[in-house]
Amino acid sequence: EMDDDDDIPQLSSHTLAALQEFYLEQQQREGMKTSQGFNQYSIGSIEEDWQLSQFWYSDETASCLAKEAVLAAGKGGRIACVSAPSVYQKLKEQDGEDFSVCILEYDRRFSVYGEEFIFYDYNHPLDLPENLLPHSFDIVIADPPYLSEECLEKTAETIKYLTKGKILLCTGAVMEEQAAKHLGVKMCKFIPKHSRNLANEFRCYVNYASGLD
Question: Which of 25, 39, 146, 158 is the most exposed place for a label (fewest CB within 10 A)?
């Protein structure tokens, strides 16, 4: 006896599972937006974690640095954010713009960003995925988690590996000499602010003609 279903094309179980997963994710994403009333990339979606020595920039500072990064990267540019999650989140808010961005971060909560997230521990500065090619980013924005020369020196190895040339470093004013020594960057006039006041005076440093002066 003939089976009525024979002439209906069947999706392979693999395709079916993938589709179901896709729809489920989509529903969850939509649900997330409506129930919590925020975009998954907004600052509020991942709170700063003091244990990880994470300090978010103020909204204004994050916007300013994101804008600078886009300009510096140029059309179709690639931007790397090393331990600078609030700048990354600002860049993600400018969806559909002509640039791409990666975040190198110790905080695994950022894995929600999928392939753009690269787990990063400054103690192992070159322990990076193979597909992250040397000198493949138009600009690297970095904010080393600690104000120590050791932390800066190790982060500098990562920055130099990733960048085609341009560097935007955010760190304490006390690090001026070390920043010049390890990265050849100079202090800008622009003063970055944090959403909570930090005890240490914070500054931006660059090695190119930026809009931050």
Answer: 25
**CATH number, residue 110:** 3.40.50.150
Around Cβ 53, how many Cβ atoms within 10 Å? 14
- Calpha distance 3→26 (Å, rounded): 35
**Each residue's pLDDT tens digit, 57-95:** 888 999 999 999 999 999 999 999 999 988 998 998 886
On whether residue 128 sits in a domain, the answer given is yes
Residue 188 lies in domain:
63-148+155-206
Reference 122, options 104, 138, 108; nearest CA is: 104
pLDDT in tens, 169-197: 999 999 999 999 999 999 999 999 887 77
Q: What is the pTM of this model?
A: 0.76
Whether residue 155 contacts residue 128, with contact meaning beta carbons closer than 8 Å, is answered with: no
